[in-house]
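Hi Y.,

Following your request, here is the sequence exactly as I used it, all 174 residues.
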Amino acid sequence: SSDLKQIDTERVGMLGHSMGGGVTLSALLARPDLIDAAVFFAPVSGDARLNYKKWTESNSSRAAAIKAAYGSPEENPEFWDGISAINYLDRIAVPVMIHHGTADDSVPVEWSEDLDTRLQAAGKDTILHIYKVLGLGGLAFRPTSRAPWAGRPCRLSPGAGRPAASPGQPTGTA
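Below is the corresponding structure, written out as tokens. Let me know if you'd prefer a different format.
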């Protein structure tokens, strides 16, 4: 609870960028009652295997420690399934909005597309905005005149499915 009058504690949203997107997804799964809407900006994958292969496997000492403790994704698929958020999307009970730029050189846009597809398949309220050319930093933290969403409201409406965009607001792919 907050003593700040401007905070509506009955409607709490959570935004996560890159690894923070993974944290936000984990929070939605661990405490579905805590958050009323989520926004991801270029989130890491909900499949722990993909994150391991992209950022950990090339660090031999870190990868060796993880393999010694848990096995590789190939050696111990049950462990990697168990820690992969994509296997628990049925727990999500709030609207989700995902933003990703096609020029992101850190997090592949396909990961956001896959998450959106899986959320849709699970019957979740989700919308994906793909921005051509924008990379991770430009999309999330340095809005410019190039950013189609800069200075425009993005609204999540519970139960609204794939909402129609406001004039000038991006929909689906940009």
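The chain has a mean pLDDT of 82.

Thanks again,
Q.
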